[in-house]
Amino acid sequence: MEPIKIALIGAGLRWTRGYHSWVMDHSDKIEIVAVAEPKEDRLNYMKKEYKLSDEKCFTSWEPLLEYIKDKKIDGVAICTSDHEHYKPAIACLEMGLHMLLEKPMAPTPEECFNISKIAEKNNCIVMVAHVLRYTPFFSKIRELIQSGAIGTIQSIQHTENIGYFHMAHSFVRGIWNNKKESNPLILSKSCHDLDILLYIMGGSPKATKVAGFGSLKHFRKENAPEGATKVCSKECPSYETECPYSVKTYLTTGGFKESVNPTGACDPESLEIELKTSRYGRCVYHCNNDVCDSMSSIIEYDNGVNLTFSLSAFTDLVNRTINIMGSNGQIRGDMEKDEVTIAHFGKGEGLYRNKAITTFNPSKEASSTENNGYAGHGGGDSRFLEGLVSAIKGNSKALTQASESVESHLIAFALEESRVDGKVIFMDEYKKNLKK
Ligand SMILES: NC(=O)c1ccc[n+]([C@@H]2O[C@H](COP(=O)([O-])OP(=O)(O)OC[C@H]3O[C@@H](n4cnc5c(N)ncnc54)[C@H](O)[C@@H]3O)[C@@H](O)[C@H]2O)c1
């Protein structure tokens, strides 16, 4: 089988840590034919890894598009930061290229609509990287719901546990910490969740009413421990013992260290030097962050389901859990444990305690051995790439086409508006008022 030919736009952390190793191991499926990346070290790294000549490496996407315009390639992967998706996406779609488009699609509803509209017009596959649709965990939950195992869904409780240090790293110190420069938390962190909830319910449910609640409560300067230094260091009285967000975590546990210095050295000594000037060395109480640190959302859908969604920084695990209540049974899922259970109402002995329960371990049970060893997003990253290859080859339908992703993005925009303005948003009216 000939590999699909892909040009890469934006060789940052998402590509290098999420997709690169699978692509390297599957050169029979994807061939990277050109790369655009302004950061010299990242560009050089890709050049070496994919054995590209100088003429195939660019410091921005515009000259890359000029280079590929008369070449026969299958598509592009757009992995630039959130605010830099739209322009290259539109330019590539106007050239008729298929695409892997990182989520969120774009920072405004109008831009999301436009991407979807131009993709449809030009018959382009735009696979938005809602990789959870490709995970064994959520595929199993969807399959059980579709099989009627719990009757009709009545309501859902969904939880996204960001993890206290992940929050500090990505949404307080990191590149998603400020709405103006990136996006509101509900979009940057949870468009995945808002999308997967639509997917598991099946059909094409639409939200009818949404309400969001939450604020930035903790990571503010007034909550800094006494004497806290603006740059996190041993001079801060809370560094060693009290502060769970101290940069000591990078140095001692190794967690997130590649994000601090993606292509450079990650030994404690080099990291310590990097942290003195890096955004990741800042005290969490003295950053330019403005995104909320926990959010509760309520959504009602046109299939009659109502849902509560809790998103919080203050959790010990990075995990998603879900509780789906149906007319004939209940599904509980814990992604970290790779566990999905169904309680079948009215079956088994006794009333509540001895009910019949079936347990699944979806990732363990997933039949494909192809993607073993690629753990990103519970196996979603590697399966998503398989899906991209298959969709471009015409062997299967993409599970995450842009036209479907627009709905979850709109829910996120509306939830944020609701949170900020303190009102319930009626989605029909909200959509009518958007400039398309
Ligand atoms: N699907 C997921 O689960 C998931 C997970 C993490 C991140 N993401 C998304 O992936 C995207 C990238 O995130 P990241 O963590 O890699 O960020 P990053 O900042 O590490 O990478 C973005 C890269 O784009 C490059 N870039 C900037 N301008 C460019 C231009 N004109 N032409 C070409 N490249 C350019 C930057 O130099 C940078 O290396 C974001 O939209 C992010 O939200 C998705």
Tags for this model:
436 residues, alpha/beta, Rossmann fold, Dihydrodipicolinate Reductase, domain 2, nine-stranded mixed β-sheet, six-stranded parallel β-sheet, 15 strands, binds nicotinamide-adenine-dinucleotide
Lay out the secondary structure.
Elements: E1 4-9, H1 13-25, E2 30-36, H2 40-49, E3 57-58, H3 61-68, E4 75-78, H4 86-94, E5 98-101, H5 109-121, E6 126-128, H6 136-146, E7 153-161, H7 164-173, H8 185-188, H9 191-201, E8 207-215, H10 248-253, H11 257-260, H12 268-277, E9 294-301, E10 306-312, E11 319-326, E12 329-334, E13 339-348, E14 355-360, H13 362-365, H14 380-392, H15 402-421, E15 425-426, H16 427-432
Parallel strand pairs: 1-2, 1-4, 2-3, 4-5, 5-6, 7-10
Antiparallel strand pairs: 7-11, 8-9, 8-15, 9-10, 11-12, 12-13, 13-14
The chain binds nicotinamide-adenine-dinucleotide (NAD).
